[in-house]
Structures are given as structure tokens and as C-alpha cells.
Design a protein that fits this description.
The complex is a heterodimer of chains A (413) and B (395). Chain A has 413 residues and is an alpha/beta fold. Chain A folds into two domains: 131 residues, no CATH class; 241 residues, 3-Layer(aba) Sandwich (Rossmann fold). In chain A, 32% of the residues lie in helices and 21% in strands. The chains are: A alpha/beta (413), B alpha/beta (395). At the A-B interface, strand 4, strand 5 and strand 6 of A face helix 4, helix 5, helix 6 and strand 5 of B.
Amino acid sequence: MTAPLPPPRKKDPVERTRQPTLPPGNRSREAQGLTAMAAVGRFALQVCAGCRQVQYPPRQVCAHCLGDDLPWRDVAAGGRLLAETNVHAANDLFFRDRLPWRLGLVQSDAGPSVVAHLAEDCRQGERVRLSLDLDRSGHAVMNAQPEEPGPNLEDDVQLREMTMNPKDRRVLIVNGKTALGLALAQAFKTAGAREIFVGHAEPWKTSPALEAVRKIDGVTLFPLDVTDTDSVQELASVLGGKVEIMVNNSYHLRPGGAVDRMDMNLSREEMDIHYFGLLRLAGTFGPAMRGRGADGDHGACAWVNVLSAYAQINNPTFGTYSASQAAARSLAQCLRAELAPGGIRVLNTFVGPLDDEWHQMVPPPKLPPNMVAGRIVDALKKGLEDLAVGAVAEEIAERLAENPKEIEREIKS
Amino acid sequence: MSGQQSAGRMGYDGVAVCVPVTVPYSRYSLRSAHWFCGRALAELIQTAGIGKVQVDGFCISSFTLAPDTAVGLTQHLGVSPRWLDHIPMGGASGAVALRRAARAVQCGDAEIVACIAGDTNHVDSFRKTIASFSQFANDAVYPYGSGGPNASFAFLTDHYMRQYGAKREDFAKLCIAQRDNALQNSNALMKRPLSLDDYMDARPIADPLCLFDCVMPCAGAEAFLVMSADRARALELPFVEILSTIERHNAFPDDPIQIRGGWAMDVDGFYDLAGVGPEDMDFLQAYDDYPVICFMQMEDLGFCKKGSAAEFVRRHDLTAGGDFPFNTSGGQLSVGQAGAAGGSLGLVEAIRQLTDQSMSAVVEGARHGVASCFGMINYDRGLCSSAAVLARSDR
């Protein structure tokens, strides 16, 4: 049975911080298809369009009928454990630091035999559930877990290397003044975060959400204005070495586009908060987080950007807002690449319209903030990289994949 | 499922296999694979009493020649062969090289073929080899603990033990007998006797495998010549005859986990062509990077039934002087695994035993033997298998 993870110790300041290493990340182009599926939490493999044979490892030609049309399809995730081993000797530095490492060979219900990272509670001959997850190198790997998960499964040390579970980790929520900020603080509290740091700009001005945040046990408030480089630097000098999960939920929405509302001040504010704000946070908190990627079982692991679904396709009703979100999204991809050497994963969430004052004129469905916060924490536990939240965001993702021109023409409801 | 049949297959009459050569092994070497292949060729021609110009065919196997292949090696070694082959089959290369060279000689495409398998081993070269072994391994094995073949064979061993009731003590008996054989082989890298306690108490590598279940990577080369029997007689070289050979790749792809190798597909035709059976064999030289694959070869090559190798090993003495002489040079487990040369170690030892040139323990009166080869864990299993029945020549 998986033992519960011991709570984090106070760090000895003279102890050397273990340097981050990554598992092998050399993958073929075909195998990047697995990464695309794992990034959004799907268990999908190549299935031959001609003969339906499921393929694994990924390839370009069907091993049965030699067909070359091998689309990715969701397949049955069950399987049976054929063999298991604990590896006690590895040449690769990442695994060498983490031995013994447990592996299994699984006969998947979909067909192929699969080498997988194996959770502690799986036994030979028994049923397992397979999942595709991103490892610390950001590439997809197979995980096998018991079909009936035990009480401490999320504490499995191998699994924890592949997820970004907030349990026992310290979180910084950038903006505590919004309803979403409050919902996030509550969700991280429920998920067992060790400490929750919450930022608030303009400390002379409070909000009902912030007052509720203040009352949550384990929360500490800090002044933080992402439009002020000094403010961000100051907080990074206090918290930089402590933040294990960064949640950038900066939010500044005003309706209007380019032709109908040319307002340079508003547009500049949006860019300052969404784009330059992220840049300031990245430049100050990024280096410390990247350096602590392997700092024990509770090291730094994730950077969450709460972005709008319109970061992916401009909604002219919120035209300049969408543009600033697109800029932030582009920078987030840069951030992902720069944090990768530390094994820090960037989760970009694309959120549909929230049920708040600034979306008053938008027809439903609109998202309650606590639902959004729950999905974000859940995505961290699963180790996802891209998350569409809500029906609107999910539809945008699907329509973009299908026909970007169609959605560009139709989006201005 | 029946594989190759003897019906319609031509035998290997008139072909001679001779001049067994081993370039001494070392744990690490600063030399290149080219050096090991070059030394092997030098010793082949010196022993045969011929010039290198008379060797008109080459069959090369090596993991560490890169970026070169057999092609580049011709310029390195200053030879101009009219027949050239490069076999990327690692541990299965020995018998595969043998059968290709034999056909080339039979058909007159080459007169004398040098079959050379050699590799170097620099510090860290083993890690580099397994870190980019195959596309499937890169994508679907190496990112999982990077255990290399140890982890792959751990699965096969774990499954085999549970399926057929083999015990670690059974594997121990095989490893200890091979070590006993190796103690008489001055080229073996393992110099000390292995006790049951040593084996059982060894440090774990990838459960259930422990230290003495795993080969030690090293540098070295194995080589032999294939020519017509008439030529061998003219050169006064002791030689062996080939009674049969097989090779098979990606056998039994529908087995969810490997419990048998390609030999099981081809075993009937193998002995039909040879005209002798497993009961006539005086020894078995099997591919032995891990003991479980030895067990599979005993079964798949007809020495015992599937799943009964453990019981077979318990009933037999596997030392060279025993009732089932097995890996009489000590095998890779005790001599070392010199990369692709591991695929020829048993074959070269078989040639020695059948031509009275043993450099280690002698199998008295040996007339027939099987040399079996296996290689290339491309993803979850070894893909290539080959084997040959060799016979003492009465000249």
C-alpha cells in the first residue's frame, strides 16, 4: 500500500539544493502525438483508419495492413499487469537520483503491450488503468495505476514526479481581489496546500472577495501590483524561494475593439496587466522556481496562467482584451520553454466567460468562479498542460482544430 | 505454426568454417571498433597463412563503428572485397553471418569470407548505445527508468518465473556452471569462482535480476573464416561443417510478452535439414546476456519442453565435463559482452570445440553442437534469433 507522503520539513539553509535533472526527452516526431494527447488529459493512441488496429509505440505505417492513415483516437485505458520490476541501477541522472524506480509491462485492453511507470499498489496479474501523462521533461509517458485506487495513490512518489499536486506545496495566487481569486484560495486550501500567498494591488482599496480570502486559515496576504516592477521584485525577494506553484490570475476586462473604441489608455492597461505583468512575474519568480525544480518531494513544480478562451481567437466584442490575452499566451509558451530545464511545467488554462459584472451583456453559459478554480486544481493533480474550461472554451478549441476561418467569421455573436 | 522447412532447402555441403579468433577482451578500451575488427582480420590471415587480398568477402557486425559501416572499414583496413555485408543484428549476428557467408562461398560469389564481430567500450559508451538504440526504445522504453536491457529482461524473467515456476536457484546453477567453465578460459574477464551465496546475495539491478544475472559490457572481437572445404584442406586448416542454420525476426508478434524466441518457429526444419536432433548434440552454446534467455533456448531448440528448462537444469551438469555441456567458454555472463561480438562468442567456441582448438575446458569427443544467437531488444522483446548445427569434419 502506498504510504502517505511525510509532511515537508523546514529547509536547512546550508543544505545543498538538489539540481534539477530531466528524464530522457529524445522523442520521434510520431511520439509527439502522445504528448499532444497527454497535454489535454486524453488516453488516445493511433488507430489504423483501414483495419482499426491500435498501434503502440507510435509509428507511420500500420503494423497490420501497412496503411498510413493512423489518426489518434481515444482507446480503452484498462489493462492487465504482465510483469513488474524495480530498477535499482540506471545510467540516466534523473532516475539515478530517484532509485529504485518501479516499472511494469501491461497488456492493454486496446491491444498493444505497454511499458509503463508503475504505481506501488499494482500487482502482477491484476487489472490496471493506464494513463498518458507528461513527465518532467514535458513529454508523454504511460502510467499504470490500480483499477481501484488506494487512499494514498496521489502520494505515490513516482506519480508525484509527473503531476503538480498542490498537496503540501506553497502557492502564490497573484490577484486575491476577484471572485476567482477567492475561489482559487479556497480550492488550494481544500487540496491541502501547505501555505497560500495571495497578492493584492492597491492595498488601500479592498473588495468583498479579498475580505473573504483574508479569513481563510493558512493564507497570507502580500501587496502585489503586476504593473509595478518594483512591487513584483520586492515580493519575489521575499517569496521567490518559497513559491512552488504560481497562479497568475491577473484579470482586467473591458469591452471594446479597435475601430469602435480606440482607447489607448485602456488598451495599454490591458497589455500592462496581462502581458507585461506576466513578463515581470516571469523575470523575477521564474529563476528561483526553475532552480528549485528538484528540491525534494515538495519542490517547485508549476506555473499556471489563467487566460481567456479568447487568447486563441479574437472576440471583437472584447477585441483589445483578446489581443492582450493572445500576447500573454505567446509569452506563456516562451515561459514554458524557459522553465522546462527545471522541470517546472506551465499550465495554460483557457477560460470561457465568467459569470461576473464585466460579462453582463454576454449570454450564458457563464462560469461560476469556484467551478473554474476546481478545474484548475484538478488539472494540476492530473499534470495537464492545456485546459479549456467551460463549454465556450471547449467549443472554441474544437472549432479551431476543425476550421479556424469558420470560427473567425462566426465568433461575434 | 511451422517456419522454415527442410523440403527444398539446400544443405551446406562443401563449406568449411575455420580459424576461430578472439581479440582479447577488456572492460574498457581507448581503441576504436575499427581497431578491434582490424586486429581480428590480422589474426585471421596470419593463422590461415594467407594474405588479406585473398579474403574477398567480409561480413561485419558492430554497434560502435559509427559513423562508419562495413564500407568505411574497407578503406580503413585497405581491403577490396567483392562481397560485403554489414549485419545490424547484434547478438544474433553470429549464425546469420555464417549462413550468408556460406551461401556466398557455395555460389562462388566469394572464395574466403571473414566474419568479424567487434566492438569497443569507452567509459559511457554503453549509456550512449542504449540511449539511442531504436526509435521504439527512445519513444517507449528509455524514458522509463532508463534501465536499458536490464529492465527489459527483468520483465521477461519476472514473467517467466511466475509462469513456469523457475527459481533464482535455477538461474544460479546455470551462472555458476558457466563461471566454472570460465575459470579455465584465460580470456574471461571474471576470474573468481561464483558461489551460490555470491549469486543469491548479489546487489539487485532490476528485480528479480541481480548483479550476476547481467553481462558486463566490454571491448573485444570474435571472428572466423568461411571457405570451401577444398580450400580449407589445401590450407591445412582444421574446420567444421554446417549441417543446418536458421534465422527469424520479430517472431510471434502476438505474444503479449516474450516467452519464446524465433527458434520455436523454425526448430523442426532446423533439425530436419541437419539430419540429427537435439539428442545428438554434444554441447549447446547459447546466447546468454541474461539466464532466462538461455532457458528459452533450451526449450525452443528442443532440448526440453516449454517451461521445463528449470527442471532440465536441475537434472543436468552444465559444465564442460558434465552431461549437458553449456557455454563451455564461460559465455558472456563470465567472459564479458563485447557488444556485437557477443553474438559470435558461442559460435567461435563451437568451432574451437569441434576442431580441438579449445582455449578453455574441453568437451571430450564432441562431434555435434548447436550455437544459438539472439539479439536486438527493439521495444519489449528481442527480435532476432538464429542458430546453427555444426559438426566435426572427418576431412
